[in-house]
Design goal:
Largest sheet of chain B: 2 strands, antiparallel
Structural class of chain C: mainly alpha
Order of helices and strands of chain B: HHHHHHHHHEEHHHHHHHH
Mean pLDDT of chain B: 94
Largest sheet of chain C: none
Shape of chain C: elongated
Strand content of chain B: under 5%
Chains: A mainly alpha (192), B mainly alpha (593), C mainly alpha (138)
Oligomer: heterotrimer
Number of helices of chain C: 4
Number of domains of chain C: 2
Largest interface: A-C, 61 and 63 residues
CATH architecture of chain B: Up-down Bundle
Number of strands of chain C: 1
Strand content of chain C: under 5%
Shape of chain B: globular
Number of domains of chain B: 1
Strand order of the largest sheet of chain B: 1-2
Structural class of chain B: mainly alpha
Low-confidence stretches of chain B: 1-16
Chain lengths: 192, 593, 138
C-alpha cells in the first residue's frame, strides 16, 4: 500500500499535523503534572527533598546522555532514509531502540534502588511525584520503543523511500518529544 | 494515520465487494455511520441522566414525610419507587447517599456522555466533513476508535452503580479530599474519565487535521461555515484542556489506590483519627487542575450549539448571517479567554483575593464576545424572510434562553455577589439555562435540521412543534424558580433542604419544578416517537430539502461512501442567500458562477 | 490557504544528499552534551536556591529549544506548528503562574513575613498615637 504524498490545504501532511496535535496534548499532560510538582514543591511545607547522594545524579546523567544519543540516532536514521540508504537507516533505528532500552534498564535499577532506600510512591510527596512523573515518562518510552520496532520492521520491508517516509518523521517527532520531557524532568527532579 | 487520499476505509469498501454487517455498521470507519452511532448513544445517555434527575426532583418535591404520613397507605408512585429501590428509597424517600450518587452521575453523564458527544461527536462527525467537501475524516480508523472508546468509558462509568458502595458521590466535580476517601465508585469515575478523555483527544486530533487540511478546492477558511469554525475552536479546547484534567485525575487515582498524598493535607483528621498518609498535599490543587479543564469544557458545550443555531438561522431567514467575521472572531476569542477564567468557580475556596480579582476581570471580559455572538445571531433575523419550521423554532428559542443564562452568570463571575450565590440553586439555574434551554435546545434543532440528510426523510412537523412547545415552556418552569431559590440561600446537593429553616419559604417552588420536570419528560415522547417513526414513514427528500447553500446539501440524502461523486469546487461564501439578480433565493457554494 | 499545496521538501525528487544536515545534527548533539554537563556541574556548585533554579531552567530551556528547532525541525516548519507549540507552553506557564500566588507560597514563609510586617508597623507608631492602641498591622 502506497503512502501517497497528500495534497493538503496547509501544505503539511495529515500525519504530521496529526502527530503535532497529539504532541500538543502531551505538552499539556506532562505540563499539568509538572505544574502540580512545581506548585507543591514551592508551596508545601512538607515536600522534603532527599539528599543529593540518595538521588544518584551520576547515573541519571548517564541516562540523560543515553536518551539524547538515541534522539540523535533517530534523526540520523531519518537522514538516512531521505538519502535512500536503507542499511544505514536500519542501523540507526537499532541504535535508537538500544538507547531506549538502556534508559529503561537504568530506570529499573534506579526504581528498585530508591525504593529500597526508602523513597517510595507513598513515603512522601517527593517520592509520589518522582515515580508518577518518571513513571508516566517510562510508559511513553515503552510506547516509543514499540513504535520504533514497527518503523524498523516496515523499513526493512522497503516500506519507506526518500519520497515517502512520513511515518518515520512522525515516529521521530514522538521520540524527540519523549527525550524533551526527560530534559525537563532531569533537572527539576534530580538537580534542584 | 492514513494520508488524505489513501483512505482505505472510505473508498475501498464502497467499490464492489459487499461489507459484512459488522464492518459496515458496528466497526464502520465512515464518519456518517460513526456520527449516527454517537447520536443514538448520546441521546440514550441524555435520557438516562434525565431519569436520574427526575428521581431527584421527586425527592426534592417532598423531601421528608409529612406529619400525617402513613407507611401503610403509600401512593402509586411512592409504592413503585419503594419496590424498585427498597434500600435507597424506602417508602419513596431517597437515602441521602443515593441522592449524592444520582447527583454526581447526573452531572457526569449529561456533560461527558450526553451533551458533548451529541454536539461535538455526533453533529461534528456527520456534518463537518460534508460541509468542507471532504470524502471522510483525516483518520477514519482513529474516528472509529474514538467512538468505541467513548462507549467503553460510558459503560465503565455506568457500572459504578454496581461497585461496592455504589456510584461516585462526590459531585461531578470530585473535590478532594472527599473524593479520595469516597467508596470504590469514585475509582470507576476516574478510570472512566481517563478513557473518555482518550476518546475526546482522538476526536479532537481528527477534527483539527480534517478542518485544516481537507477542505475542498476554493473553500478557504473565510468561506467555511460558522458551524465548522465552532467545531474547530471546540476541538482545540478539548485538545489542550482535557490533558490537564487527566493529569489531575491520575494524581487522584494514585491518592485513592497507591497511598499518595497529592491532595491530602498533613495530619488530616478523618473520622476522629489522623488519616494515615504522609500528607503535604493540597485539596485546592485538585480544584485548580479540575477547573482548568472544566471551564473550557462549558464552552465545548456551548460553541457547537452556537454553530448549529447560526446554520439554521441562515437557512431559514433566506439572508446571509450578520457579521460572519465578528461571529468567527468572537468564537475564537471565547476559546482563548476560556483558558484564563477557571478560578471563578473557586472564589469561596479561600484563595488569595488578588488572584480572585484577576479572575473577576477575565470573567467579565469573556462575557463580551459571548454577547457579540448573540447579537450577531439576533441581528441576522432582521429583514429576513423567516420560515418557522421546527428547527428554526428551536434555533430562535436558543437566543433568549441563552440570553437569560448568560446574564445570570454575571453575578456569579463577580466575586462579591458570588459570595452569596456560590453553591446555591442560583448556580444550578444559571448553568442549566445555558446548557438545557440553551445548548440542548440548539442540539435538538440540529437534529430536526440534519435528520433529512442523515436518513433521507424529514421528521414530522406537527410532532416537532408539539415537542418544541412541550420542551421550551416546561424548561423555564424547571429552571427559573431555581434562580429564586438560590437567592434565598438554598444550597446545592442537599437531599432534604427542608432540614434547613431558611429554605422553607421556597420549598413550594420545588413542587412546581418537580411537576414541570415530569411534563418535560412527557414532552420528549413525541420526539422519540417521531425519530423512530420518520425513519420509515417520514416525507422523503432529495439532496437539498431546505434549499440551503452549504456543501452538505450538495450530495444525496443520505450520502454514499465518499460523500461526493467528485470533489466539489467552491466559488463563494457559505451564506449567499437572496443575492440580487440571482434566479433563486439561494446560491449554493459549489454551483458554478 | 485556498489552493492545495504539495507537501514535503524533496517530494518527488528521489534521494538527496543529507551530509550538511548530518553535520548540523552532530554539532547540536555536542551542544546538548555540553549543556548537560554544565547543568550538572552548576548543581554541584551549591549556589543560592533562586539562582540555581534560574540557571537550571535556562539551560533546560536551551536544550529544549535545540531539540525542538533542529531535531524536530521546528525551524523549517511554518507559523501554524510553531505558534501551536508556543500556545501550549504559554498555557502551562499560565497554569503555573496563576496558581503559584494561591498555593505556591510556603505557609511558614508567609507567616514569618506577616509577623515581620506587624512588628515594623508597631515600631513605626511607637510611641502609641493618643487615644488609640497600636494599629493592627495586617
Amino acid at each position: 500500500m502506497s503512502t501517497a504524498i497528500a495534497e493538503t490545504n496547509t501544505g503539511i501532511s495529515n500525519a504530521k499535523l496529526g502527530i503535532w496535535s497529539f504532541l500538543a496534548s502531551e505538552i499539556m499532560l506532562f505540563g499539568g503534572l509538572i505544574s502540580a510538582y512545581v506548585i507543591l514543591r514551592s508551596g508545601s511545607a512538607h515536600m522534603v527533598m532527599p539528599p543529593r547522594s540518595m538521588m544518584g545524579v551520576p547515573l541519571a546523567t548517564f541516562n540523560t546522555f543515553a536518551l539524547i544519543t538515541s534522539s540523535v540516532t533517530m534523526v540520523l536514521a531519518l537522514a538516512a532514509i531521505q538519502e535512500g540508504n536503507i542499511e544505514k537507516f536500519k542501523r540507526w533505528i537499532l541504535c535508537t531502540i538500544g538507547g531506549g532500552v538502556i534508559f529503561l534498564a537504568v530506570k529499573a535499577y534506579e526504581y528498585q534502588h530508591k525504593w529500597h532506600e526508602g523513597i517510595t510512591l507513598s513515603s512522601n510527596l517527593f517520592g509520589s511525584f518522582y515515580y508518577t512523573l518518571t513513571g508516566l515518562h517510562v510508559i511513553h518510552v515503552i510506547g516509543g520503543l514499540g513504535l520504533m520496532t514497527y518503523i524498523f520492521v516496515a523499513g526493512s520491508r522497503g516500506r519507506f523511500t526518500p519520497d515517502s517516509h512520513d511515518r518515520v518523521e512522525c515516529a521521530g517527532l514522538y521520540w524527540h518529544f519523549v527525550d524533551l520531557v526527560w530534559v525537563i524532568l532531569f533537572p527539576i527532579l534530580y538537580l534542584l | 494515520m492514513t494520508d488524505a487520499h489513501a483512505h482505505g476505509g472510505a473508498h475501498a469498501h464502497g467499490h464492489g465487494e459487499p461489507q459484512g454487517f459488522i464492518w459496515k455498521y458496528v466497526f464502520s470507519v465512515d464518519h456518517k455511520v460513526i456520527g449516527i452511532q454517537y447520536l443514538i448513544t448520546s441521546l440514550l445517555f441524555l435520557l438516562i441522566g434525565f431519569t436520574m434527575m427526575l428521581l431527584m426532583r421527586w425527592q426534592l418535591a417532598v423531601p421528608t414525610p409529612a406529619d400525617d404520613f402513613d407507611p401503610e397507605k403509600l401512593g402509586m408512585i411512592r409504592s413503585l419507587l419503594n419496590w424498585i429501590f427498597p434500600e435507597s428509597m424506602p417508602f419513596g424517600f431517597m437515602d441521602p447517599v443515593f441522592y449524592n450518587q444520582l447527583g454526581a452521575m447526573h452531572g457526569t453523564i449529561m456533560i461527558f456522555l450526553g451533551v458533548v458527544p451529541l454536539g461535538v461527536a455526533a453533529f461534528g462527525n456527520y456534518v463537518m466533513p460534508l460541509q468542507i467537501g471532504a470524502p471522510d475524516m483525516a483518520f477514519p480508523r482513529l474516528n472509529m476508535m474514538s467512538y468505541w472508546t467513548y462507549l467503553v468509558g460510558g459503560i465503565v462509568i455506568m457500572s459504578s452503580f454496581l461497585a461496592d458502595g455504589g456510584a461516585p458521590q462526590s459531585g461531578w466535580t470530585s473535590y478532594a479530599p472527599l473524593s479520595v476517601v469516597a467508596p470504590a465508585g469514585q475509582t470507576y469515575w476516574l478510570i472512566g474519565m481517563v478513557i473518555i478523555i482518550t476518546s475526546s483527544l482522538f476526536g479532537a486530533i481528527n477534527f483539527i487535521v480534517t478542518t485544516l487540511n481537507m477542505r475542498a478546492k476554493g473553500l478557504t477558511l473565510g468561506r467555511m461555515p460558522v458551524f465548522c469554525w465552532a467545531q474547530l475552536v471546540t476541538a482545540v479546547l478539548l485538545l489542550l484542556a482535557f490533558p490537564v484534567l487527566e493529569a489531575g485525575a491520575i494524581l487522584q487515582l494514585l491518592d485513592r489506590v497507591a497511598g499518595t498524598s497529592f491532595y491530602i493535607p498533613k495530619d488530616m483528621i478523618y473520622g476522629a483519627t489522623v488519616f494515615p498518609r504522609a500528607g503535604g498535599g493540597s485539596p485546592i490543587l485538585w480544584q485548580h487542575l479540575f477547573w482548568f479543564l472544566a471551564h473550557p469544557e462549558v464552552y465545548v458545550l456551548l460553541l457547537p450549539a452556537m454553530g448549529i443555531v447560526a446554520e439554521i438561522i441562515a437557512t431559514n431567514t433566506r439572508k446571509p448571517l450578520f457579521g460572519y467575521k465578528e461571529l468567527v472572531g468572537s468564537m475564537i476569542v471565547i476559546g482563548i479567554l476560556s483558558f484564563v477564567v477557571w478560578a471563578h468557580h473557586m472564589f469561596l475556596s479561600g484563595m488569595r483575593t488578588s488572584l480572585a480579582n484577576l479572575f473577576v476581570t477575565t470573567t467579565m471580559t469573556i462575557s463580551i464576545p459571548s454577547v457579540a455572538v448573540l447579537t450577531c445571531l439576533l441581528l441576522s433575523l432582521r429583514g429576513g424572510t423567516i420560515r418557522y419550521n421546527t428547527p428554526m423554532l428551536f434555533a430562535l428559542a436558543f437566543l433568549p434562553m441563552f440570553g437569560i443564562g448568560g446574564l445570570t452568570g454575571l453575578p456569579l463571575g463577580f466575586a462579591p455577589t458570588d459570595m452569596h450565590l456560590h453553591d446555591t440553586y442560583y448556580v444550578i439555574g444559571h448553568f442549566h439555562y445555558v446548557v438545557a434551554p440553551g445548548s440542548l435546545i440548539a442540539l435538538l434543532g440540529g437534529t430536526y435540521y440534519w435528520y433529512p440528510k442523515m436518513f433521507g426523510r424529514k421528521m414530522n412537523e406537527t410532532l416537532g412543534k408539539v415537542h418544541f412547545w412541550m420542551t421550551v415552556i416546561p424548561m423555564n418552569f424547571v429552571f427559573f424558580p431555581m434562580l429564586i431559590q438560590g437567592m434565598y440561600g438554598m444550597q446545592r446537593r442537599l437531599a432534604t433542604p427542608t432540614d434547613q429553616w431558611h429554605n422553607l419559604p421556597v420549598q413550594g417552588w420545588s413542587m412546581m419544578i418537580g411537576i414541570a420536570a415530569a411534563v418535560l419528560m412527557v414532552g420528549q415522547l413525541p420526539f422519540l416517537f417521531n425519530f423512530v417513526w420518520s425513519l420509515k414513514n417520514g416525507e422523503k427528500v432529495g439532496e437539498n430539502p431546505w434549499n440551503a447553500t452549504t456543501l452538505e446539501w450538495a450530495c444525496p440524502s443520505p450520502p454514499p461512501h465518499g460523500n461526493f461523486a467528485k470533489e466539489p469546487e467552491v466559488f463563494r461564501g457559505p451564506y449567499e442567500y437572496s443575492v440580487p439578480g440571482h434566479k433563486t433565493d439561494y446560491w449554493p457554494q459549489d454551483e458554478a458562477a | 490557504m485556498s489552493s492545495k499545496v504539495s507537501q514535503g521538501a524533496g517530494a518527488h525528487h528521489g534521494p538527496i544528499d543529507k551530509s550538511d544536515e548530518v553535520r548540523t545534527y552532530l554539532i547540536i548533539f555536542g551542544c546538548l552534551a555540553v549543556l548537560t554537563l554544565l547543568t550538572v556541574g552548576v548543581a554541584y556548585m551549591n549556589l543560592p536556591h533562586a539562582a540555581g533554579v534560574v540557571i537550571a531552567l535556562v539551560i533546560a530551556a536551551a536544550k529544549v529549544f535545540l531539540i525542538g528547532s533542529f531535531f524536530m525541525h521546528l525551524r523549517g516548519e511554518g507559523r501554524l506548528i510553531n505558534w501551536s507549540v508556543a500556545v501550549c507552553c504559554t498555557l502551562i506557564l499560565i497554569l503555573i503562574l496563576f496558581v503559584l500566588p494561591d498555593l505556591g507560597i510556603h505557609p511558614l514563609e508567609e507567616a514569618a513575613r506577616n509577623a515581620l510586617h506587624e512588628l515594623e508597623a508597631q515600631h513605626a507608631h511607637y510611641p502609641a498615637t493618643p487615644g488609640g492602641a497600636a494599629p493592627a498591622g495586617h
